[in-house]
Every structure is written in structure tokens, then in C-alpha cells.
């Protein structure tokens, strides 16, 4: 699965925007807590050759907040700060000069749920808030389970590498931590149980035992796990 969940598109135009201004973005996006989502977006605005050529700055704001007095959740303007709670998690992707306003949201949190609007400015010539077409984000409880990968069947006495990953996760400010548990007679090396990879040397008596990978987002009460039964030949 891709590290960023690209959800089915529910595109919305902005027919009621002022002439020359248009925004194409998903109307509704749902993501599970702790996971990531990619929101494709494009925009257009009127421009004249008579205008100067100032920088193009774009912003995403929470609905109900002011583009003049509030901090954005994401922007390409180095002179403007973003909200501390979204810094590093809400990121603009793509080239704004190619009218790309796509947004990446990582390590989604319940409090991220809400509506967001897009704003652009290019000097004093063009400034516009695309209020007619907003992005509605819903963060739901985490139900996604980790994937455990290894070659089956396991051979007795032969070291085998196993890996654990969480579909839909991506790099974020709060990294994932992994924990392995095995209800077998042979103990796990404590130094390896916090890694996403694990090397086991199974024995015949380990056949039918359960191995669990638990994934947790650091600093958050977001935990999920998967258990598999080992088949040792």
C-alpha cells in the first residue's frame, strides 16, 4: 500500500467564485487517526502582463479564521508562521507556480477534524480567498492493522527475517514504535523487539505459537496490533 492514502476523489469546483478564480479540491476527506492522507488540489487566478512579478504565496486556513490575523495550517510563505499543532504535519506538495495546491496531512489527529479554506496572494495585485469550495476533513478512530511479512513456511533451525509495517503511515513528527511479543519457549532479544524487523530461528516446538506486532505512535494513545500463528516445518 502506498505510504500516503489517496482516497477516492470527490471533486468540487467553484462556480460561484469571482471570474478567473477556480479551485479544484476534494470536498470531503476521511483519514484514520495516526495515518496520513494526500489531498490533490489545483487552482487558477486572473493575471495581467501589466502586473509586477511578486512572489506567489498560498495558504490553507481553518474555516472561520482570518487569513489576515490567524496562522495558517500550511503555507509556502517563509515569513509567515504556521500553527504549532500542524507544523510538520500539514505540508504543501507540488509547485505552486504550476497552480498546484496539493496538501499532505501526516499523523492525523482527532482535533484536525473540521473545514479548511485556501487563500492565495501575489503582491497587491491578486489576493483571493476561495471560500466557495472548502476541504472538509474527518479523522476517525484507528482500525487499520499492521502487516507482518515473512516467507512461509518457516524452517526449523533456519534464521528468518520478519518485518512489520502499518499501511497508510508515513514519516511524521511523532515516529512509530514497534513491539514484538512471542508466546514461544525461546525468548526474544529485548534489543530487537522495538524494531520494525525481527530475525527468528524457530524450533519444531514453536509450531503453532503466536507472534504479535504492536505499533504505537510516540506520544499518542494510538495503538494497533496484529497476531499471526507460525507454521514451522
From TrEMBL:
Query: Which InterPro entries does the UniProt record give?
Result: CD80_C2-set, Ig-like_dom, Ig-like_dom_sf, Ig-like_fold, Ig_sub, Ig_V-set, SIGLEC
Is Disulfide bond tagged as a keyword? yes
**One GO-annotated biological process of the protein:** cell adhesion
Q: How does it sit in the membrane?
A: Single-pass type I membrane protein
Provide the coiled-coil residue spans: none
Gene Ontology terms, cellular component aspect? ficolin-1-rich granule membrane; plasma membrane; tertiary granule membrane
Keywords attached to this Swiss-Prot or TrEMBL record, sorted alphabetically, are: Cell adhesion, Disulfide bond, Glycoprotein, Immunoglobulin domain, Lectin, Membrane, Repeat, Signal, Transmembrane, Transmembrane helix
Q: What PROSITE patterns does its record include?
A: IG_LIKE
Ranges where the Ig-like domain occurs: 19-116, 146-229
Name of a matching Pfam family: C2-set_2
**Where is the region Disordered?**
191-210
Q: Which gene encodes it?
A: SIGLEC5
Organism source for this protein? Pongo pygmaeus
GO MF terms, alphabetically ordered: carbohydrate binding; sialic acid binding
List the signal peptide residues. 1-16
Where in the cell? Membrane
Family label: Belongs to the immunoglobulin superfamily. SIGLEC (sialic acid binding Ig-like lectin) family.
This chain's protein is named Siglec-5
